[in-house]
Structure formats: C-alpha cells, structure tokens
Amino acid sequence: MARQTYPAVIGSQRVELPVVPIDGDLGIALLITVDLGIAFCARAGEELGDALRDLRPDAVVSIATMGIPVAIEVARRLGQDGYVVLHKTPKIHLHDAVTEPVHSITTAQEQRLLLDRWRVDAIAGRRVAIVDDVVSTGASAAAALRLLRRVDAEPVAIGALATEGQAWRAELADDAPLVRALGTLPLFRRGSGGGFEQLEDG
C-alpha cells in the first residue's frame, strides 16, 4: 500500500505529511520539523514570531526536541538572542533540574520535563512564550505551564506550528486561549479498506 499523506497548510507554506498509526486504529499527520528543512522552519518561525509579537514575550521557551528549530527562529524574529529548553532526556547537567511529569501522544512511556536550574533566572519574572511544533493532547504544554509558573515565569502564549485534534482544549482548560498556531491538523481513523479516513471533528 502506498504511503498515505495529508496536505497540511502551515502559515503560508504547504507540506505533505505522512499519516501514521499511533494507537490502534487512530492515526495522525506526522509533522517532524527537522525533516521539513531549514527554509521551512525559518519561514514558519518568522510567521509564528509575528503572531506572538503583540503579546510582548521577553523570553522564549522550547519543549525538546522538535520545538527547538522553531524556537530559534521565533526568538530571532522577536529580536532575542537566546531561548530556554525544557528537556525530556536526562543529561549530566540536569541532575538537579526542576522537573514536571508529562505523557506525550508520540511517546509510549511517561516522561519528565527538565529545566536546568542555571537557566531559571532567564525566565523568572518574565513574560514567556512557550514554543513547540504541535499541540495535540495538550499534555506537554500543560506540564510546561505548571513548571514555568513554579519558577515564577509568566506564560503569555503557547505558540505552535499546528494544533492537532481538539483534546488539547480540555487538557489546557482555562489556558486554551494562550494557544496560537499557524495551522490545524485533523486526526484519522483506519477505514474498512485499510487506509486512514479523516475524522470530521478532528
């Protein structure tokens, strides 16, 4: 069977994303920033930065790993020479990190967001834009919000290339209006013919 794709619109750009199974018959259009190229991320980051500018963020925080290329371009567009990463993989410099549990739709086991304590001063008391590739279940974004508020940062936006489905709205609840995205992606269900069919309610 040929690989099924979905024609996604991300800001001013159009990309063909592979539709892949994630849980039983459920499928997603898989957006992998590092596979879409430098030019794609540069333009998407500029457009997302423009979409966040009116909120006056003075710090950009990325959720590793696929959000990092976007965060670099958003920070550059906003005239900032740096960003902070919330890691998901333990590293030697994160042995005493500020942590928050998270369960991602694309990862089987529970993970933790890890903020290097040496980077807390870069965001404490500042207006922060969280930048990620896709907001799907909202679990990663919700965990990032909890962590950032614990270190006295003020999240003013959750910027993403795309939202996926609608589950993130319930997960983020009162924080859902913080989300600004360049596009939307539907969810898919495997049909009787073996291919994936787009769910109407996304």
Describe this structure in words.
This protein has a single domain, classed as Rossmann fold. Strands 4, 5, 8, 9, 10 and 11 form a six-stranded parallel beta sheet that branches. It has 202 residues and is an alpha/beta fold. The protein has four helices and 13 strands. A hairpin with an 8-residue loop joins strand 6 and strand 7.
Task: Present the secondary structure layout.
Elements lengths: L4 E6 L2 E11 L2 E4 L8 H15 L6 E5 L4 H10 L6 E3 L11 E5 L8 E5 L11 E9 L3 H12 L3 E11 L2 H6 L6 E3 L2 E2 L1 E4 L5 E3 L4
Parallel strand pairs: 4-5, 4-8, 8-9, 9-10, 9-11
Antiparallel strand pairs: 1-2, 2-3, 3-12, 6-7, 12-13
Helix pairs in contact: 1-2
List keywords for this structure.
35% strand, six-stranded parallel β-sheet, Rossmann fold, 202 residues, alpha/beta, 21% helix
